[in-house]
# Entry
Amino acid sequence: MHDYWFKKHALCALILCIGSVITVNGCNDVSNAPPPPTGPTGLTVTTTALPPATINQPYAATVSATGGVTPYSWSVSPALPANVALDAGTGAINGIPAAQGASNHTFTVQDSSNPPKTSQRLLTFNVPGAPSITTTSLPPGTVNSPYPPTTLTAAGGLPPLVWQPAAMPFGLTFDPGTQTILGTPLSAGSQNVTFTVRDSSVPLNQTGSATLNLTVNAALTINNSSPLPGGTLNQPYGPVTLTASGGAPPYSWSILGGTAPAPGLSMTAGGIITGTPSAAGSFTNTYRLQDSNGIVATKPLGMTIATLVITTPSPLPNGKELFLYTGLNPLVTMSASGGTPGYTWSASGLPTGLTMSSSGQVTGIPALGTSVASPYAVVISATDSAGLSVSQTFSLTITP
# Structure
């Protein structure tokens, strides 16, 4: 009997021990158990921007969200522009915008959880206006000189803007890709040119245009020919004014290398040459003309500075008392060079009976007894048309 109870209690203890092990190592081990079910993710408006609209054209877009519990309910504040509405059930935006402009709106989505969750996003509803060309004038060009590269500009509309080809006059071209006028004008004139730009609005592109005047001036030209009027040594020169045509006045004059027209002379930026020549000779310089558009023309021009000289040699031919002076000799006519041609002559110290005309001729009959004071020292003077004078002493012999 004692053995029976001992074995019975031992068996129960074993069963309890095994049960304890199973409970500790099996029933409470959740390492291999499946994860519990998760709740809904956070609610978020996923639309970050609205596509642009076009005035008076059908518009369709949809705002979207993710997370939370569907179905969603949408609202917007402030209300969308006239003729455009938001579908609260689908988030669809539809309508025909009636006015241009951009406005900001807060879109709110609400899900179906309990309590409901919300999310918001600030979006811009934009109805761009038509593009407009902001260039208001074109610079003038000059025949045979490169046209100043001119890039047209525009504003507004939905980018990217696309420029249309334009028919250009005077041999110029318009590059729509760079919006630039290029080339060298081949003829002069003035003409209106219409430029057009379109935007990327859909379904219809909006366009803008502008008509601009294009003027091309005649080729810039220095009108003076070479040589310039000559001058006389040590006598006031000019003023002599250089002239030009074509291009765009006012003009500015200079000489390449910064030299003077001739020693003692100077030239103003207005092309006026003045001064008193300090050296004789021939002087050639390259004259530079620039107009108000920066166009340049050059031309070599020369001038001569002369010294007034009596070229008739001394002595004068001999004369004889009571005989016609020109009867014994050919007609004696004085000559000169230099200065400004057109000489006036005079003489002092001639024997009695002889005279000199203003044209330089010596005439008359030497009086009786004039041989006594022979030879005579005759001072002959020449004055040019600019007033420059030169004098020279000539010997004259009178025989009995």
In short: The helical segments are 2-27, 325-328. The longest helix spans residues 2-27.
